[in-house]
């Protein structure tokens, strides 16, 4: 049954990571209470134990997995609402956090346009473009084969080229195949996207807003050893001093860089 559940998740837009995660959560819950014995009371008992022993974001993840499974199996069992997370984390996030926390959470809370939303989130995170630059972006500006994008600044008409990953290309192709261009590349204004992102805020253990994607893009480039001049060009900064003020690394990232570059073990 869990194999069919995983296939159903994939068919409904979930990533492989999310599908595997949800299957794992359901398997763990079923070891406490067999699926055929699930009731409102029995699941609340399991969730109470999880809430008392796990961090809030993990509890929410179990809850999301259960709700998806109930939808898949067409069972009507009322579950509690997700818990708002109040803990504050750094102002940028890693690629791993983006892939394993942000995207799976968005998949769960998005009830429409999942291909569009995943495409635009991957696009923003892996290109670093400003959210306002989406308004005038068209599909003719995106070269899927070369994985490049031509960004034109509306006021000055200046142009720059940015790049994206193979995975971003995959999500762009899925979305573009599902909906023709009407107003811009994503048929989405920056204002509408900001409203969507603000609605997701309660589900994250960090202050999540659109600029976080651009900031995290830049921080992750620096962490991976990309030089500051290149990062500045990709961000569209005229002055490298702006980039210097803009970037920051977490203590953990700085420590790992130090160990790899300075304190690495000699063979």
Can you walk through the features of this model?
This protein has 267 residues and is mainly alpha-helical. The protein folds into 2 domains: 2-72, no CATH class; 95-256, Intergrase catalytic core (hpI Integrase, Chain A). It has helices spanning 2-11, 16-32, 40-53, 56-72, 95-109, 114-127, 166-178, 190-200, 210-223, 228-235, 240-246, 251-261; strands at residues 142-143, 148-152, 159-163. The longest helix has 17 residues, at 16-32. The protein starts with a helix and ends in a 6-residue tail after the last helix.
Entry keywords:
single chain, three-stranded antiparallel sheet, 12 helices, mainly alpha, hpI Integrase, Chain A, 267 residues, 2 domains
